[in-house]
Amino acid sequence: MDFSNSTQSKATGPANDTSEVQRPVIGNKAAKTRADMRAQARAPQNRVNRKALGHILQSVDIFVTLILAAAGSYALSGGQVADVAAGELLPVLIFAVLAPVTMMMLRLYKVEPREMAAFRMMRAFIATGLAGSAAIGLAMLTAPRATDLVAMFAVTAVGALTLLHVIYAGFIAHWAKAGRLARNVVLVGATPNARKLIKANAGSGTVNVVGIFDDRKSRSPSALGGAPYLGDTNDLLSWPLLHEVDRIILTVTPKAEQRVQMLLAKLRTLPHSVCLLLDLDQFDPAATSLDDIVGVQAARMSGEEEKFGHLLAKRLQDMVIGSVMFVAALPVMALIALAVKLTSPGPVLFRQVREGFNGRPIEVLKFRTMRHDPKSTVGPVRQVERDDPRVTAVGKFLRLSSLDELPQLWNVLTGEMSLVGPRPHAPSMRTGGAETASLVSEYAHRHRVKPGLTGWAQVNGSRGPLHTPEAARERIRWDLAYIAKSNFWFDLWIMIRTLPALMGDKINIR
Q1: Is pLDDT above 80 for 316?
Q2: What is the pTM of this model?
Q3: What is the 3-state secondary structure (H, E, C) of 256-310?
Q4: 102: which residues sit within 8 A by CB, 6+ positions away?
Q5: What is the CA radius of gyration of the chain?
Q6: Distance (Å, rounded) from C-alpha 389 to C-alpha 181?
Q7: Residue 263: which of 216, 303, 297 has the closest Cα?
Q8: CA triplet 413, 419, 424: central angle to 5 degrees?
Q9: Which residue from 347, 331, 429 is spatially nearest to 382, judged by alpha carbons?
């Protein structure tokens, strides 16, 4: 739910005043109401990544341009492309090169939800028209007799590419209206800047302000600029909806250095990108959206900007190698499923909720290695111990060989996991009687990437249950080291090292 478009009242006073005047209420009632508001808050799901969408549109344009160039070359040569002089085909090749370049220069691949379709069509026409004009001009010099044919090709290609961008604009407008292009953000600090930003975002649909958190605002539940006050930063850290948030924006003035440092110390434990908004003394809310402000006038204090090229390469790696591995493993998985079914009552597969990217809950698949207990999915997860009586005879072999993890190849193919990354941990997992997340301040940073079937920690000996704080800290250290230098070739190296590391491990409990 985007609260930024709600009707605002005319309340005045300190920055922390509510937009809707409310009488003070009893503290317990206020806390309960804030808890209810946090539970009822909603953020758009199934959203479209604007940066990825821009790259996809560019790829489609390049593909279509190449198809048009191939068709144009065929038409110019009468079907005998190899027999035609290079000078006659050169204008078509120049168009194929210039059209994508000019469209990129005119920023046609930056997806703007507020942009009018007519403006996109005009820019597409100008960009392709320049490429078409260059092709016709070159044809006059290198192939005068084919100028008419080149002109016909240029007009057709310009019209086709312009029409394509009209279609793009229709999809973008539809997704924008549905809220699928909006970034989900929360604001930390019920300040004048927060009110300005919410006003700037009103009606734009580019950012969804899910709510506001502020440590200093504890008198009563309220709203600021139409966005609900959901509690303090401790409430934010434990908020179940946090995994749906893309960015956390500090709206506290940078001049309040001590308060900013205190808030950053808390927020840096999260895997989310955290931005400190710079003071906004002069800007026009009617012409500027929150998305514009966050992109230009905010300093990144924590988190990393996603790199589309790396994400694409990693996903392709997962799909190609994961598909081959899944097909090759099918006979083995069929035999394992039969063995599990025949040796102990209960389901073949064990499904457990684990923490995925950004802490989102995912259902991870494994072959069942323990005696079936319906209550095992309720409450904190009890980790496996040496000679654990819950483990079956077949389960012990599966754990020692790590064959129980094979069904997670399906999680990889569905995009919930990756072949390489930090191993997925269960929510509220405990180490030595304490919640693991409380033992290591950087614990949540491992959620900045998708969890993996194998990882840098595992090939370096940190695998299986964590029974001591030292083991937990070592695991996180390896996970963060992987995230810092993750790339295509490093992932391949980890995959190659995985089997020898597993076969040589006689120490870890599995």
Answers
A1: yes
A2: 0.59
A3: CHHHHHHHHHHHCCCCCEEEEECCCCCCCCCCCCHHHHHHHCEEEEECCCCCHHH
A4: 127, 128, 130, 131
A5: 28
A6: 50
A7: 216
A8: 95
A9: 429
Rounded distance between C-alpha atoms, residue 44 and residue 99, angstroms: 35
Residue 449 confidence (pLDDT): 85
Torsion sign (Cα): 377, 378, 384, 385: negative
- The pLDDT of residue 44 is above 70: no
- The answer to whether the Cα torsion of 314, 457, 336, 388 is positive or negative is negative
Which tokens is 501 given? 């590391």
Query: Does residue 127 surpass a pLDDT of 80?
Result: yes
Helix axis angle, 50-77 to 308-343, nearest 10°: 110
Whether pLDDT at 318 is above 90: yes
Are 266 and 250 spatial neighbours (Cβ–Cβ below 8 Å)? no
β-pair type (227-231, 207-213): parallel
- 198 within 8 A of 106, measured Cβ to Cβ: no
* Mean pLDDT to the nearest integer, 342-370: 87
Cα distances (angstroms) measured from residue 303 to each of 31, 78, 206, 300, 449: 30, 57, 21, 8, 11
Selection from 154, 110, 146 nearest residue 130 by Cα? 154
CA dist 17 to 34, 217, 259, 290, 472, Å? Answer: 16, 9, 19, 21, 43
As given in the structure block, the two tokens for residue 469 are 């704080």
Select from 242, 237, 188 the least CA-distant residue to 216. Answer: 188
242 closest CA partner among 254, 230, 256: 230
Is residue 177 within 8 Å of residue 5, measured between CB atoms? no
Antiparallel, parallel or unpaired: β 247-250 and 183-188: parallel
44: amino acid identity, one letter: P
Q: Can you say whether residue 34 is alpha, beta or left, with left for phi > 0 and alpha for psi between -120 and 50 degrees? A: alpha
- Alpha-carbon distances of 353 from 362, 377, 476, rounded to whole Å: 5, 8, 20
Q: Residue 308, by phi and psi: left (phi above 0), alpha (psi -120 to 50) or beta?
A: alpha
Q: What is the DSSP letter of 391?
A: B
Helices within 143-223 (DSSP H only):
147-177, 192-201
CA–CA distance, 336 with 399 (Å, rounded to integer): 12
